[in-house]
Amino acid sequence: MSIWKHLFNLEERRNWWTRKMPDGPLRDFYDTPFPARDLDWRQVDYLALDFETTGLEAKQDQILSVGYATIKGDRMLLSSATHILTRPTMNIPEASAVVHGILDDEAAEARHLEEVMPIMLNALKGKALLAHHAAIEYEFLNNACKNLYGFPFLCPVVDTLALEVRQFRMRDQAIRSGDLRLANARTRYGLPRYPAHNALTDALAAGELFLAQAAYRRTRKPLKLKDLIVVS
Amino acid sequence: MEIELIEIRDFLSAHHPFDQLPEQALNLMPEKLQIRYFRRDATIPDAGSIDDYLYLVRSGAVEIHGLQDELLARLGEGDLFGYRASHMEGHERFTGTALEDSLIYQLPAADVDHFCREHPQFSYFFEPAGGDRLRDAISHTGEDGNSQLGLMATQIGDMINRVPITMPPFATIQQTASVMADERVSSILITEADETLTGIVTDRDLRRRVVAKGLNTNLPISEIMTADPYTLDASDYAFDAMLQMARTNIHHLPILRNGKIAGMLTATDFAQRHTTSAVYLVSSIYKQDEVAGLASISAKLPQLLLNLAAADATANSIGHVITAVVDSITTRLLQLAEEQFGSPPVPYAWVAAGSQARSEQTAKSDQDNCLVMDDSYDPELHGDYFKDLSQFVCDGLNACGYVYCPGEMMATTDKWRQPLKNWKHYFDGWVDQPEPKALMLTCVFFDLRCIAGEKSLFNDLREYLLNKTRGNQIFLAFMAGNALSHKPPLGFFRNFVLISGGEHDHTFDLKHTGIVPIVDLARVYALAAGSQAINTQDRLKEVASGGEVSHGGAHDLRDALEFVSSLRIKHQAKQIRAGIPPDNYMSPDDLSHFERSHLKDAFSVVRTMQNVLSQRYLR
């Protein structure tokens, strides 16, 4: 697929898949256009998203919890804040349980991913996906879409980690280990310290970081969505 | 609410006024919030009106400026501005500027209205400063905690109810005794036809002066009455009456209202109410024959302050009680001095100035006093007597912990020990040719109260002085200028006190930035109105009905004074308990959110009234 993204832009690819796809949650998602690349960043809706997972490999590991909140332009709306536990089909490895604190018993009470995916796709409609190190969320979504609906996931993506890397490059600053971690990035913008590794808290933390990054980028010419998204 | 928004809820619940919301309402709040990020120097809001949202600083700092770009407030974590909170700084219109990169929670106006409607305790916060809000704060502390302490705030007029029984001076002893028996009273007042009081007769007088001596009961009652008895005014405090009785060992006090008899106060009126430790302290003062004995009593003052504070007495009551002790010590010292140096060659009045005059002492203060002698005073003949007398009393007060006034405003200073005509001369100078610098120093002499001696000397001086100041625009303008020299802080910012101009102080000076500005305002009002009241609460009460200041303004100032003063007493009580000498400096760290918020109200009230005064006299 990597060749397609150089030949066709995101919107063209969305149209392509829409034509081929049967009815269903993913089709519903694709029926709504993506936010236009040339929009001022404040006219775009974003979904700040975070997953807690059993590990980092989208193909083997599973989603344990989902947290998200909508950002309308330059404000994050807590009314949209959502946190859902998803039920894994595998046992939760101890190494990951230590991090996110979700145990097998709790997860057993949770909803199946096929129930949760439509909710998430609905929340993502017409928005840009926003996450810190978004590749993880993107890959897990892509994998879930392929498994559940037989088609890949597409969405404009804003990655606060990538924005942070750009910020370092622009200042010609060396990146030391740990600099790009969510908590450390937030500290640079004077944002308060939150306890990490809860999907919703991390989603809010990433959302706030994005607001700060955008505020810092607002300098010469108006900032547009295309200046913020990572190529996908 | 999503469980993960608990952190936001916890942040809210740690800050006033959200801490006033019941848990259920608090749980509903986070999802109403919108999160914004403002870079340093950004204007808040960046679009729309400031009244679209209520803003809560989550992290960072925001400065609030008025229309003339003057700094109104500096806000840190947990502080609010915007919708409904705008008037809290005393200004309807202002702008916010991020002083640091700031994370801001904004609550839409409609939601603010909703929470205010549903939760009165939350909406109080958004009332105009100094209104019900400050009153509400004081209601926690503003009433004396128990009935004994109530005496300090109760005016005698509220305690007397029955019409006094009177007899004319020509009635016979027998007739008088018969009326007393019929009316079941233990004392009776003897009055002229125009209701002026000429004497008092008690059961004890009948026993000792009539029966014991086998006197003819057909003699007129004026033969055996106590002529010209002690009286108090209906507006005096019940506590003063108790002290008067303790001091003079009498059990019946005629009470006057506008010079006419209003009733009789007897020792039994206090019988159900236990005497307070203060009254015991005072009565023991009059049993001391040496300065050392007085000093050992004054050493108990800190404990008295603790007891009063623990009993939730109002700051105003505590001021009266603590001052009553120094009044009594002064009176006793004068009695001892007269025993030692003989009777005074000419009449004199011992006059207290400053906080003692205003009955506003707390933990021990400096002494401020002066001596007014009769105009028959001859320095050649009487100079040494009064010099010795003053030295004795001032030394005694110093030994009791009322240390010598650093400005030498004491009767021992020749300048402040003068016959009445010279005092009038002083006031001529201060009032007719006011100099800002001199006024600052002599301000203390515009709060005077006679402690002992010939009261008419003092009354003469006070009348003279008030006649000069009443409506005297030029002099009042100088006093107003002086009253504006102490400004309340703008508020608090993190662990600092924010003062106008944007400077920071590390401590909050309760006296000079909290209490003195209110005392100064009340003094100007009182001098302008020619009011005889000296105590600041009394002054504000009195001038409020005279038009010198609005009723609401005076009320707000009284509330502000009570709130700041009670905070000072709490602070000093804490220091006394910790064995630290009490002072007037508080660290902002020691203030609760509630106290900070209400102090800001008090400051705002004072600022508003200072602006009004400045408009009136200094345009």
Structural write-up:
The complex is a heterodimer of chains A (232) and B (619). Chain A is built from eleven helices and seven strands. With 232 residues, chain A is an alpha/beta fold. Chain A has a single domain, classed as Nucleotidyltransferase, domain 5, CATH 3.30.420.10. Helices cover 45% and strands 16% of the residues of chain B. Chain B has a four-stranded antiparallel β-sheet with strand order 1-8-3-6. In chain B, helix 10 packs parallel to helix 13 and helix 12 runs antiparallel to helix 13. Chain B is elongated, with a radius of gyration of 29 Å. Chains A and B meet through strand 3 and helix 10 of A and strand 1 and strand 8 of B. Strand 3 of chain A pairs antiparallel with strand 1 of chain B, so a sheet runs across the interface.
Summarize the structure.
The complex is a heterodimer of chains A (232) and B (619). By secondary structure, chain A is an alpha/beta fold.
- How many structural domains of chain A? 1
Quick one: how many beta strands of chain A? 7
Helix content of chain B: 40-55%
Run of helices and strands of chain A: HHHEEEHHEHEHEHHHHE
Q: From the alpha-carbon coordinates, what is the Rg of chain B to the nearest angstrom?
A: 29 Å
Mean pLDDT of chain B: 85
Largest sheet of chain B: 4 strands, antiparallel
Strand content of chain A: 15-25%
Structural class of chain A: alpha/beta
Which helices and strands, and how do they pair?
The complex is a heterodimer of chains A (232) and B (619).
Chain A lengths: L3 H4 L2 H11 L4 H7 L13 E9 L9 E10 L2 E13 L6 H7 L3 H6 L1 E2 H12 L3 E4 L2 H16 L7 E3 H11 L11 H7 L10 H19 L7 H4 E2 L2
Parallel strand pairs in A: 1-5, 3-4, 5-6
Antiparallel strand pairs in A: 1-2, 2-3, 6-7
Chain B lengths: L5 H8 L9 H6 L5 E5 L4 E2 L8 E7 L2 E4 L5 E5 L4 E3 L12 E4 L3 E7 H10 L1 H4 L8 H8 L7 H7 L12 E2 L5 H11 L3 E5 L5 E6 H9 L14 E2 L4 E2 L4 H11 L3 E6 L2 E7 L10 H9 L5 H8 L2 H10 L4 H27 L6 E6 H4 L11 E5 L5 H21 L17 E3 H13 L3 H7 L5 E6 L1 H15 L3 H11 L7 E3 L2 E4 L3 E3 L2 E2 H20 L6 H9 L6 H27 L7 E2 L6 H25 L2
Parallel strand pairs in B: 9-10, 13-14, 17-18
Antiparallel strand pairs in B: 1-8, 2-7, 3-6, 3-8, 4-5, 4-7, 10-11, 11-12, 14-15, 16-17, 16-19, 20-21, 21-22, 23-24
